[in-house]
Write a structure and sequence with these properties.
Elements lengths: L6 H32 L5 H40 L7 H28 L7 H7 L2 H15 L7 H33 L6
Helix pairs in contact: 1-2, 1-3, 1-4, 2-3, 3-5
The structure holds protoporphyrin IX containing FE (HEM).
Length: 195
């Protein structure tokens, strides 16, 4: 099959659009799972309404945004490889494909969690889900580094500094959110609030 010269750039444009949509969906989906799990602490009538709403939002997000984003990213990537098959012989591309396989496994695992949540069988806590939601960040940073640096993947001090900074930022966000939740629950328990 022969493609016009600009086809590669079109595939790449749509590939990047697909990747952005896919990741937006993955990040928001697990955030919804966290709210869904934490709705269990609400009063029974409110809890039921919230759980139904989260179930609906999760299904729509997964089926209308996240999965189509993945299909667009992967199908355009296939277009890129058909137009330039020599990429497949390069180490960075093989490493990237291994990471993408991990990302697709994560995507499928999210669907499994969604099914368990909808049936009220999910055993994951909000805290565990928050930690899980950091996993795609790691995939994202590594894959983007691979496509940018290719076979010159950096392993020097600057790389570890940047990776450390990204991890530090992710951990700080987690700690801040935890501190805010603790403060809120203490405020609610305070005698002043109980009259
Ligand atoms: C099926 C799996 C994938 C394959 C086969 C694939 C393949 C490719 C190829 C061949 C390019 C063009 C490289 C160039 O022209 O320099 C590319 C670009 C890119 N890919 Fe992927 N990709 C895949 C998945 C992903 C994922 C999951 C991400 C994000 C986490 C991603 C992010 C990017 C980015 C940001 C670019 C643009 C890089 C640039 O122009 O410098 N790709 N991809």
């Amino acid at each position: 099959m022969t493609f016009p010269p600009e086809a590669y750039l079109w595939f790449k444009t749509l590939h990047i659009v697909g990747v952005v949509v896919w990741f937006a969906g993955l990040f928001y989906l697990v955030r919804l799972f966290i709210y869904h799990v934490e709705a269990a602490d609400l009063e029974p009538t409110v809890k039921k309404a919230f759980e139904e709403q989260y179930t609906l939002m999760e299904r729509r997000l997964a089926n209308i945004i996240t999965t189509p984003g993945m299909i667009l990213a992967v199908s355009m990537a296939v277009g890129l490889l058909i137009t330039q098959p020599s990429w497949l012989n390069q180490a960075w591309m093989q490493a990237k494909l291994a990471l993408v396989a991990g990302l697709i496994a994560y995507h499928i695992f999210c669907y499994r969690l969604m099914g368990q949540l909808n049936r009220g069988e999910c055993s994951w806590s909000g805290r565990q889900l928050r930690a899980l939601n950091e996993l795609p960040t790691l995939f994202l940073v590594l894959v983007v580094m691979l496509v940018v640096f290719k076979n010159q993947f950096p392993t020097g001090a600057a790389t570890w500094l940047i990776v450390g900074l990204v991890l530090f930022m992710a951990a700080s966000i987690q700690f801040y959110a935890r501190w805010r939740r603790l403060r809120l629950s203490r405020q609610l328990e305070s005698p002043l609030n109980n009259g």
